[in-house]
């Protein structure tokens, strides 16, 4: 690939090197297609560089410190000294190892890597602008394209991320010192994960949420242990409020975050002056805005390729990751909910295989999701209410971790495993887990749904003792009415 004002060609153009894009590129390379992968920032995308991986690294590190400091019941007395700089260096090392691995894997699969920003000129051509003075741009013609440009944090009025005390998740994961206090705007999964991280580092954390509970979209029984643990960590919550502005404090260091009742803020566009006794004012050193993410689709000149987005900026695709333009595909966050890295990788793989003529398609029925709060949440398939609404006669089984020998030996016995199945034939329809290692345990039940397994299949599979995974087996047995280590319903 020659950089300059020239035109080159490729079989498959992939725009964006996150979990959707680099997987699409590598799989297309494995299928003997000529592939060019364009990335404007960093290989691995937001997930590897600024999201999934660095946040989980810090969650793990702060968990180690917190568990050591609170293990008196086990006869362990410790007061860990936290070196945030050292912690960040370790986190960055993990990130560098993974992003470097992505680049090596792409090259090993004969993927041409091109740094720059791609914009469509027409449905078979993009213009790639290279960053840096004098770098110029080039034209690239393609037979097929995969759009995998990901997502960015949503910015709310009066809280621009360029303002020093206002943080997005990327900036929060790169702090050089632990803030004494932090207001987290948004109690969804990103807000709750990072609120717990900073609380365990010793920060006074207040979570501000416009709705009436944490983790919108999750059942109350899953949220309850997470909320209780957050309370135990000292996290304060203010529900039903929308952050509307911030300003420097006149009498002290730090800032003051102003919030109004959510209904009033919504009615007034978030900017009207609130009644004084309804207004909430929170003094803090930093404010983290974590109200969700939006697709990066506005940088592509999609109309030039004959593409449109919906009113939220997502590109519509079918089960084969194909857009309304047959030879252009989309994968990952830009292709719509759920905005999950593993969903994006699966879509990227499907896109590459469809381009190569394979009979590939993606079934979202067995798409798991995880929240890395304390304790974790893992879900897959239908909830009980969703299955009922779909017309199934359901049966459920549940097993509490407090009855698990392995959970008790780890000191983490909050939570449970719940399985939802079709009462007539026993097929597993869905599952939800809240507890330690829920993100790992949900994989077994995802496989059960994918393979069309029944409660009897799961219950009759011998599980190693003592392990947390026995709780999955016992939940299936509970649904069948013959659990051994918990009372049957």
Automatic annotation (TrEMBL):
Pfam families: Pyr_redox_2, Pyr_redox_dim. Its cofactor is FAD. It catalyses: N(6)-[(R)-dihydrolipoyl]-L-lysyl-[protein] + NAD(+) = N(6)-[(R)-lipoyl]-L-lysyl-[protein] + NADH + H(+). Its EC number is 1.8.1.4. It comes from the Archaea. InterPro entries: Class-I_Pyr_Nuc-Dis_Oxidored (IPR050151), FAD/NAD-bd_sf (IPR036188), FAD/NAD-binding_dom (IPR023753), FAD/NAD-linked_Rdtase_dimer_sf (IPR016156), Lipoamide_DH (IPR006258), Pyr_nuc-diS_OxRdtase (IPR001100), Pyr_nucl-diS_OxRdtase_dimer (IPR004099), Pyr_OxRdtase_I_AS (IPR012999). Residues 11-348 form the FAD/NAD(P)-binding domain. Binds 1 FAD per subunit. Residues 367-476 form the Pyridine nucleotide-disulphide oxidoreductase dimerisation domain. Keywords: Disulfide bond, FAD, Flavoprotein, NAD, Oxidoreductase, Redox-active center. GO terms for molecular function: dihydrolipoyl dehydrogenase (NADH) activity; flavin adenine dinucleotide binding. One of its GO terms (biological process) is 2-oxoglutarate metabolic process. The active site is a redox-active disulfide bond. PANTHER family: DIHYDROLIPOYL DEHYDROGENASE (PTHR22912:SF160), DISULFIDE OXIDOREDUCTASE (PTHR22912). Belongs to the class-I pyridine nucleotide-disulfide oxidoreductase family. NCBIfam families: lipoamide_DH. This is Dihydrolipoyl dehydrogenase. It comes from Natrinema versiforme. The lineage of its organism: Archaea, Methanobacteriati, Methanobacteriota, Stenosarchaea group, Halobacteria. The gene is lpdA.
């Amino acid at each position: 690939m020659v950089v300059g004002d020239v035109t080159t060609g490729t079989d498959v153009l992939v725009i964006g090197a996150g979990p959707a894009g680099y997987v699409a590129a590598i799989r297309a390379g494995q299928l003997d297609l000529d592939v060019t992968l364009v990335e404007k920032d960093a290989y691995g995308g937001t997930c590897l560089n600024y999201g999934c991986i660095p946040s989980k690294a810090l969650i793990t590190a702060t968990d180690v410190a917190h568990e050591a400091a609170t293990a008196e019941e086990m006869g362990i007395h410790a007061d860990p000294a936290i070196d945030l700089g050292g912690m960040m260096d370790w986190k960055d090392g993990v990130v560098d190892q993974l992003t470097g691995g992505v680049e090596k894997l792409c090259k090993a699969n004969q993927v041409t890597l091109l740094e720059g920003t791609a914009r469509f000129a027409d449905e078979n051509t993009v213009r790639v602008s290279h960053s840096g003075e004098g770098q110029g741009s080039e034209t690239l013609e393609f037979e097929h394209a995969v759009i995998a440009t990901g997502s960015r944090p949503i910015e709310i009025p009066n809280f621009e991320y360029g303002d020093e005390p206002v943080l997005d998740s990327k900036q929060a994961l790169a702090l050089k010192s632990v803030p004494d206090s932090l207001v987290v705007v948004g109690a969804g999964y990103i807000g709750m994960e990072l609120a717990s991280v900073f609380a365990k580092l010793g920060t006074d954390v207040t979570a501000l949420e416009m709705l009436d509970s944490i983790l919108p979209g999750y059942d109350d029984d899953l949220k309850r242990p997470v909320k209780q643990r957050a309370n135990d960590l000292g996290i304060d919550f203010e529900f039903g409020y929308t952050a509307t502005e911030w300003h420097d404090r006149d009498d002290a260091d730090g800032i003051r975050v102003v919030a109004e009742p959510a209904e009033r803020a919504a009615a007034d566009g978030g900017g009207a002056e609130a009644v004084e006794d309804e207004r909430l004012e929170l003094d803090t050193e930093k404010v983290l805005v974590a109200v969700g993410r939006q697709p990066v689709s506005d940088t592509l000149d999609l109309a030039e390729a004959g593409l449109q987005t919906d009113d939220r900026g997502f590109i519509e695709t079918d089960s084969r990751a194909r857009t309304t333009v047959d030879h252009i595909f989309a994968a990952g966050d830009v292709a719509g909910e759920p905005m999950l890295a593993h969903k994006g990788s699966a879509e990227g793989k499907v896109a590459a295989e469809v381009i190569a003529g394979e009979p590939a398609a993606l079934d979202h029925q067995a798409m798991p999701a995880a929240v890395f709060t304390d304790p974790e949440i893992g879900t897959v398939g239908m909830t009980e209410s969703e299955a009922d609404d779909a017309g199934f006669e359901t049966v459920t089984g549940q097993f509490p971790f407090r009855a698990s020998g392995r959970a008790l030996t780890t000191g983490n016995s909050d939570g449970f495993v719940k399985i939802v199945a079709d009462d007539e034939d026993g097929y597993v329809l869905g599952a939800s887990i809240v507890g330690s290692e829920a993100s790992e345990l949900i994989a077994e039940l995802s496989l059960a749904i994918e393979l069309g397994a029944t409660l009897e299949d799961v219950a009759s599979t011998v599980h190693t003792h003592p392990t947390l995974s026995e709780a999955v087996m016992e939940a299936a047995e509970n649904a069948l009415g013959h659990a051994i280590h918990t009372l049957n319903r």
